Amino acid sequence: MTQVSIEEYAVAGGSPYALTTGPDDALWFTMVDSGRIGRLVPGAEPAHHQLEPTCGPTVITTGPDGALWFTEYRAHRIGRITLDGTVTEFTVPTPDCAPFGIAAGPDGALWFTETAADRIGRIAVDGRITEFPVPVTGGFPSAITAGPDGGMWFTMNQADAVGRIGMDGAVTVHSLPSPAAAPVGITAGPDGALWYVAIAAGQIGRITVDGQITEFPLPDRAGRPHAITADADGALWFTEWAGNRVGSITPQGVIESYDLPTRGAEPHGITLGPDGALWTALEIGALARIGRHRP
Q: What is annotated as the active site (predicted)?
């Protein structure tokens, strides 16, 4: 079993939700409740950039232009912040669309989900937005990631499905085997497949680019897995929001789980940090570093 060490670092000013590693070797994270973007260089003090307090910054990612891009779930905007803290915001054409997931695509643009509008959006680095309908009503498109096949893959939380959108806007929908699975996070795996977490079913899923699905139940089916990311060693790491844990799964389906030090920490986003460790956002007001050690 992999040995891990978990350290928590308080970040005052709000409750961290999602995080990513920026091009400046810092961790950038969102604080939904306080409308802030945070920045933490491992080993240094965190910094914060205040947005409109009620805008609801949610998921954040590094863009192809060297800036950080994020969704504003409550303000229905896409935000961009440069490394020096300059913020630009772009209103999505569809009103009340509630953008959530965002990821860089293979075409030099950012792609995002519109949870309340049954659409996938594309925003060029100059701010031009194009929207594409998803052929499922009320599917709640959620997380999104670039796939190994040149398309963008996304979860549909309320449709129990995973979708793919090509650069031409064509959408394919893959229904999941488990009913009431409620998939949320999704990421590209080291094995050429996509991996997702099913928050309501308590399981990890793997879907190949041709739509073949395998499901792996967690030891604690009530753990509420939320986000998932790949590490540098060929495994996937995920958060268990209700279980107060982080876990890993190999492409062969071997699962290991690790308790967080603080009870009720509420882990959400997870990413590979600039220092080679995994980092997760804790809603209690901290980031946790997960170091891995092979015995």
A: 268 (proton acceptor)
Identify the CA nearest to 258 among candidates 270, 246, 268, 243: 246
* pLDDT per residue as tens digits for the range 171-229: 999 999 999 999 999 999 999 999 999 999 999 999 999 999 999 999 999 999 999 99
Is residue 242 domain-resident?
no
In one letter, which amino acid is 22? G
Q: Quick one: which of 151, 150, 145, 96 has its CA closest to 118?
A: 96
Q: How many domains does the chain have?
A: 1
45 is in an annotated binding site: no
Would you say residue 72 lies in a domain? yes
Looking up residue 96, the CATH number of its domain turns out to be: 2.130.10.10
Whole-angstrom Cα distance, residue 110 to residue 121?
A: 8
110-161 pLDDT, tens digit each: 999 999 999 999 999 999 999 999 999 999 999 999 999 999 999 999 999 9
Residue 44 has pLDDT above 80, yes or no: yes
The response to whether 266 counts as a known ligand-binding position is yes
* pTM summary value: 0.97
Question: Within its chain, how far is the Cα of 211 from the centroid?
Answer: 21
The domain of 81 spans 20-223
Query: Which residues are marked as active site?
Result: 268
Q: What is the predicted pLDDT for the residue at 295? A: 60
241 within a domain of the structure (yes/no): no
For residue 287, being part of any structural domain is answered with no
Q: Is 283 annotated as a binding residue?
A: yes
The answer to whether the beta carbons of residues 182 and 201 sit under 8 Å apart is: yes
